[in-house]
Amino acid sequence: MNVAAKWQQLGVAAYNIVLTFVPSHTVRLGALRLWGASIGEGSTVSRGTTVFDIGRIVIGRDCSIGFRCLLDARGTITLGDNVVLASDTQIITGTHIIDSDTFDAEFSPVVIDSFAWVASRCTILPGVSIGRGAVVGACSLVRSDVAAMDVAAGVPATKRGERSSSLAYSAKFRRLFY
Q1: Of 54, 98, 117, 152, which sees the most CB atoms within 10 A?
Q2: What is the spatial distance between Cα 159 and Cα 150, in angstroms, rounded to a whole number?
Q3: Tens of pLDDT along 8-35?
Q4: CATH number of 3-162
């Protein structure tokens, strides 16, 4: 294992075991940036969020990531600006190939465009794109793309309507000790 891979493993362990629970946005974001995440100004990652492959995470500005989320970025995760991931959301970028004799895995990126809102306890599977301004209802399983401004919900998530917001807001959310 090379030095860069060891550094990444150290970052994942340090962040997930200790740093994710530190009640300071500055400390948590600083640690994620130290291990290679690209995080825009004004964004927050709340306590208890678990991350894998920190260096494959790109978060735009003024994004809000809630408590206890899972960011499995082994296949890369990209969030635009003003994205809201509510608490307990899971983004999974990897899966095992069921017919593999050696239990091989494959990874695909997840992209969530600006102003998208993913409500609490959603699961987003590998290879999914969520369009600009889209909304995903609570407890949904997103296994296919959600178009811009669509409202999707359910298991599996399907289109339930369309959003009519002008998207003229900031999702910046930073409270002390969150």
Answers
A1: 152
A2: 6
A3: 999 999 999 999 999 999 999 999 999 9
A4: 2.160.10.10
